[in-house]
Specification:
This is Phosphoglycolate phosphatase. The chain has nine helices and six strands, in the order E-H-H-H-H-H-E-H-E-H-E-H-E-E-H. By secondary structure, it is an alpha/beta fold. The chain has two domains: 143 residues, HAD superfamily/HAD-like (Rossmann fold), CATH 3.40.50; 66 residues. The chain has a six-stranded parallel beta sheet, with helices on both faces.
Amino acid sequence: MIKAIIFDFDGLILDTETPWYEAFREIYEEHGAHLPIELWGLGVGTSGEHFDPYLYLGECTGKPVVKEQIDALFTVKHGALMELQGVREGVEDYLKEAQAKGIRIGLASSSPRAWVESYLKQHGLFEYFEVIKTADDVLRIKPDPELYLAASEALGVAPAEAAAFEDSPNGVRAAVSAGLYSVIVPNPLTAQLAFDAYDLRLDSMADLSLGEVLKRLEQTER
């Protein structure tokens, strides 16, 4: 029986990832370069060590890249794009349904705590989460399973009693490695990426109720 749900943050609750990519894509275009989605996807849901957009821009242009200048451009572009973003469809409905059913609610994010909590509070979602585990709490972020193992333990459930909701391949790898059920809900950016094994895929959380999702997960062979 599934006793807890654990949400990712970036790209799942709030689509911060598409604006992040689009801002860098515009910067690349302004420098006469192209930013392939496949390369960018290597770093989605994890740290920058898997893909360095500054280094790659320098390789594309053959010129030195001043990170501070790129960051200044990025801040303006990303900020403007983020103003257009709202909580993804169905997210709060799932949180409300979980509360009503007595299902524990956690969050596991590879981002810093300050980033995650600021947006949760801004959108009125912070109080739903009993447990929040971020990059600040672990030695290894996704795709390593440590975040999901830590969140499960803090919620008082076994990993096999929890369902992870993710939008990125790196996030799903972490959830599967930890032993959780896995549901992917890709955003416009991550829908273009290849996913490994998962239990259920939704285009939107509005497609099915949380109860129906958990029912389908519990019917899967493990």
